[in-house]
């Protein structure tokens, strides 16, 4: 695979092989709807907000100080603050690819110039290490985050190279010089070390794909294989925190720090695919299965522990202490997407959808200038209104905050939204697969030269109609296959194909995927109708934290009970026996009863006879989880106790 | 109150006033049984084990280095390591008071001499601060623990002064000189500061009681009142961590770090009682009520968060991530005991009992040489056998560990067990109150000179018979009142009074207290019979984490299901519908069904019809919670799901 090849793909992930080929920004364009709105806010507000914070926090200024030779004096931010600048550059690159905004182009070039000026003569780049008065380079692999930061630099350079291959702004060259330093230090003949925070692996793998230089893939492979051999020092929470406890190919589930775990798994998937390592790929599929079956919240969120931002054990999924870091959601999408490309399994697309709607969409405020870092599923105490100027600890409030001391999440959301077009559809030799449903324009060429072009019209998830309108005849009238994903919850989905000539072909569509293969003509319409009725969902009996509870879902969206609507704290509410959610005035409602009341003094008493008189029920509207905490301080719960 | 007065009481707490007067070691002696066994192991093994670790970890050596003037070179341990030496001295003092062991006396004097040699010329004492190359004294009130360490020094000196007032070993003088430094620095004209870890308050209050010097009580009062005014820097978890968020008299519940919260509440109770501050005392009673009703585990354990070792919000009581630090249990006993002395409320004695049996008794291994730091209520993954030589992180294993990097718990258990005789009974003007049931000899003099002397015979909690055998006639045949506590769970308790002449008086005894007032004669026997049948206990509907579960209790003991007995992991087990615990072969058993099985892929599915065929049930024995993890690595759960 050459540089020419992968820079033609405007997508964050471009594997050397696999079941599906991703379609990038030049081939898929989201044109509106739920995600189009969020992309617009991201481009119009969030990117400016992030740059303003990177300046005011001094994290961009650190590069200027490096260039001026005045460091370490005045350096601000944590060890990993450089990485936020790189994620911002990645987000800008995708946004420029998406919109061609010249103001953003100027902004990017200006930041790249400041980064370039900070690079050391030998290619090393980090504002925290290596200068007189700073710690030595690579002297703190556990916590220093040097390789982690470079991994984000590489992803930014890859995004730029794929969206503006002829830009000559120098970002790719900066990345290549830094990558060469990494290979010299940590190559097969070099130091047997890994970074305490995985990320350099995905960065190196994509850099290899963009540049065609196999050394970077080999370096990624070395880092992946070195995990699990205890080269990092042990810590209170164990080496599982860094995934340095068990080799990647021997692990049975993701574990430890949830962002690290997903980033590493994503990098390992890149290595497995590009090196043809089927054993490693199979191990990663097994880890994904187990993690989804036993260690994932109903929102798609991952990470049960505040203490170490980590996965819990199997079935350990507390709602009230859910950490479910926004970045772990982003990492889960990175990992799932790579497996999807490799295998074509629609379950991975479904987890991505669930995570997008209930984690990624939940984090930013409607104005794009405040964010959730952690995403609890049960808020017990109303938070204080966030100070729009304040920098917050990472997970202390029930309200979105403008910035964090560890501010990984805002730029992670920004780069994900800006590149989201590239997660909508894929192609194989015979056609195109739609994985996510949004208003979109799709146009690509299959391997044999057939052009595929269609628009998607939908207001999903508000309703379940997804219409694919073919815009060009299949070249030489050759048939191709349109594959549509039918979510697991969409029992009773229905497909109709209306030909340009007016004939209609209808059939049921079972969960999984549904295919339409024909010599498509311009004007042909394929409509998939997903049933968008609300549903009550119960947890596996082994998930202790939400036993006896149900969650209301509709389509890919999880709903919540919020005190703003309930008129009281939600801690004593339960679903009225036998009741089901219903729609009224455009909202979902449930009947609840109140089981609060006076304290018992000691809250553990003889098992009570439940035949006592039941309090009257009342109807309370629900809120989509991604819309909670937008009306001021509140308490909230996703899982609603089911009164027995 | 003069020094003479309080040194006659061999008890850790000797308030100036209150509803009840504590009976100390000279008045109450535990003579065997459940607690007598543990006291014996504590004296024979634990104290030696602790000293050996204090030596090998270098924490005692720090004092030698201080004396030699070689610090900071070679100093070992955390900021608070001095306090473990002081808690060890306190434990030794009580054990000497209890047993008069000359070997322990030598050991204590040797350690006191090393501490004395480390004290600075002006009375300041801490091995971590104030020397050239160390941070300045009092320069880190948030984390430095200087006042915290001195609080433990004061408690040790008080224990020694009360058990050996004529010892002349110098420990009390060391404490007085250090307390004078504290008063000079932090007095009304001094620095407006508090310690990030409460403890100095209880220490100063008792030191005031022992010495009769009112300055120390006033200093304790100042520290109590200064809490809640934000003099400490804010931290990620908020100032509630240090109880510096809300003034003590305005708080509604204990919050923040659970050990700090209880120690502060205990010190505040001392101040409220001795200064006659009824408002403060009422606030503390309210906090106790709310904390017990909403923030306490069924074991009596407190603290829901690993991250900050803190109380959670109301109803936030996860079983699997229960922190329930052993020291928080000790702190809860300290706080409850002070309120009990002030008010006479048997609910405080009941919480103490629950905490003793299910937290304090759970921590040490049967050999007294390994400990739980945290006390989970649900172990999901078997731990690795503890290395008997290794020092562990504080809460990482499912198995007891010999020592911890933060090793507050072992000496805290040791001092509690060594002083336990002083928590058994109290006196008022009219008689004696028995709060805890253990084989014991009680002999005291009431205020008007009447002698009360009796033995307690019981094998409680193995059975529920508590026999009080009067050993001396009431002087001048004057009547006195024996008050016995009847636990809340003891519905159907029965009391009989058999006079020395053979006549019998019988009656039922409702939960609360039962009184027998008569002119007791030697040979009179009062027998309280508590019903020791097992019971199923359910949680308040607002405790989300254990909804749909029950716990098996018998008497004051909580029971657990352990994989060693269940023959499999306990994660999929549920109580068979309609079944009740039963006794067989001297153990408690339950019928369980297995609800585990194949993973569903995605663990959230449409609410299932529960009419599916139910798996066969089988009988599994339970283990007393305090005896779990004594047979190797296991999984365990206290709360058992009740299959609906």
TrEMBL record, chains A, B:
PANTHER family: DUF1680 DOMAIN PROTEIN (AFU_ORTHOLOGUE AFUA_1G08910)
Lineage top rank: taxon: Bacteria
Pfam hit, one: Glyco_hydro127M
Occurrences of domain Non-reducing end beta-L-arabinofuranosidase-like GH127 C-terminal (ranges): 535-641
UniProt protein name: Glycoside hydrolase family 127 protein
SUPFAM superfamilies per the UniProt record, alphabetical: Six-hairpin glycosidases (SSF48208)
InterPro entries per record: 6-hairpin_glycosidase_sf (IPR008928), Beta-AFase-like (IPR049174), Beta-AFase-like_GH127_C (IPR049049), Beta-AFase-like_GH127_cat (IPR012878), Beta-AFase-like_GH127_middle (IPR049046)
One GO-annotated biological process of the protein: carbohydrate metabolic process
Source species taxonomy: Bacteria, Bacillati, Actinomycetota, Actinomycetes, Micrococcales
Start and end residues of each Non-reducing end beta-L-arabinofuranosidase-like GH127 catalytic domain: 27-420
Domain Non-reducing end beta-L-arabinofuranosidase-like GH127 middle: 432-532
